[in-house]
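RECORD TYPE: inverse folding
INPUT: structure tokens
STRUCTURE:
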């Protein structure tokens, strides 16, 4: 009885069912692999879809701007006046046209120039015909005279005329009943035009004679030689087919390649958009760091200068910088714009950096570095 009583009172003799549970903990195990700063930034970027798409767009613009001019060798300032405001084209063939002779207007000597007013409505010309070969260089028209007409109005339309309202745009007026010809050289394209000739004597007639003219793609001999400067003398002749340069984005109102001009403009925009904020941020961080680290009168003076620059109107100083740098009318003034943006955009980074340095300059790691002999420049650049 004595032994059994002692065994029940001794905790060491408790059965296995009541043994204390043990838990093994590895406090030094890593919950995630060790990553460098750039590895962590890349993982965060991949997880943000909008940011990743934006990065792809920026890379695409950089490739388009920097590598594009090496692949598309077209002068953005070169003008092709024969291809003004042209839609996108990927190269087409055109007939080389000989230089046209001077146009001699057709005047009928036996037709009165100013006949008396007609009794009834004037009739339409009996016929309208094309003189010579029509091309994009010009269309020459000639029509039969109308008795009693004191002049003629020439209309041009890109569609088939449907009554008086479909004649198109009046492009010329032939004053005098004996003037029965006209040469159209206004912004002609390779397409079909409908010319309507209407007689008038005080008022226009409601009847017209219409002629449809189809213009094949053509280029003048001088423009063909300009397009192919490497061609030998006499190699390019009138009547031959010539491959015209491709304009994937079309041309502007001065005949300049819009794709080449877009690349050149993007270079200027990205240059200013990258270097102006970069230099402004570097200057602001430098000035704000000095102001927050030194404090006292230096901080007070630098912040008053920052407040003064912050209150300056940007547009006014942009104009003043253009005047100082001598950027005249029609010039880009990239240098003036770059200097103006750097000079007036550093205040934000300076104030932000000053606040952060004021908060951190009394931290323990800064005191420890100072006790170890770190100089102010090292503290500011390395730690703050």
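DESIGNED SEQUENCE:
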């Amino acid at each position: 009885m004595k032994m059994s009583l002692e065994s029940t009172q001794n905790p060491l003799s408790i059965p296995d069912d009541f043994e204390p549970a043990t838990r093994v903990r590895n406090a030094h195990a890593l919950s995630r692999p060790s990553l460098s700063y750039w590895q962590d930034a890349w993982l965060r970027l991949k997880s943000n879809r909008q940011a990743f798409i934006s990065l792809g767009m920026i890379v695409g613009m950089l490739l388009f701007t920097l590598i594009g001019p090496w692949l598309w060798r077209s002068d953005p300032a070169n003008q092709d006046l024969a291809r003004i405001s042209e839609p996108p084209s990927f190269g087409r063939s055109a007939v080389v046209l000989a230089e046209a002779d001077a146009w001699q207007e057709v005047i009928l000597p036996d037709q009165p120039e100013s006949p008396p007013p007609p009794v009834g409505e004037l009739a339409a010309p009996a016929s309208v015909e094309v003189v010579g070969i029509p091309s994009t260089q010009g269309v020459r028209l000639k029509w039969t005279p109308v008795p009693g007409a004191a002049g003629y109005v020439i209309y041009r339309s890109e569609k088939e005329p449907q009554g008086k309202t479909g004649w198109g745009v009046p492009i010329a007026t032939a004053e005098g009943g004996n003037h029965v010809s006209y040469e159209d050289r206004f912004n002609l394209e390779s397409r079909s035009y409908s010319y309507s000739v209407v007689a008038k004597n005080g008022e226009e007639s409601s009847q017209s004679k219409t002629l449809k003219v189809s213009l094949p793609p053509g280029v003048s001999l001088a423009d063909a030689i300009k397009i192919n400067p490497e061609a030998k003398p006499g190699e390019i002749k009138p009547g031959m087919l010539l491959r015209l340069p491709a304009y994937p984005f079309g041309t502007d109102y001065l005949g300049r390649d819009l794709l080449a001009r877009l690349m050149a403009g993007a270079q200027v925009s990205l240059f200013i958009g990258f270097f102006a904020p970069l230099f402004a941020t570097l200057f602001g961080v430098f000035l704000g760091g000095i102001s927050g680290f030194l404090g006292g009168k230096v901080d007070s003076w630098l912040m008053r200068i920052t407040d003064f620059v912050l209150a300056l109107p940007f547009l006014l100083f942009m104009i003043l910088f253009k005047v100082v740098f001598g950027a005249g009318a029609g010039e880009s003034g990239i240098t003036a714009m770059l200097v103006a943006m750097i000079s007036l955009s550093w205040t934000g980074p300076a104030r932000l950096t000053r606040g952060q340095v004021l908060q951190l300059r009394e931290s323990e790691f800064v005191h420890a570095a100072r006790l170890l002999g770190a100089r102010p420049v090292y503290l500011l650049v390395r730690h703050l």
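NOTES: The chain has twelve helices and eleven strands.
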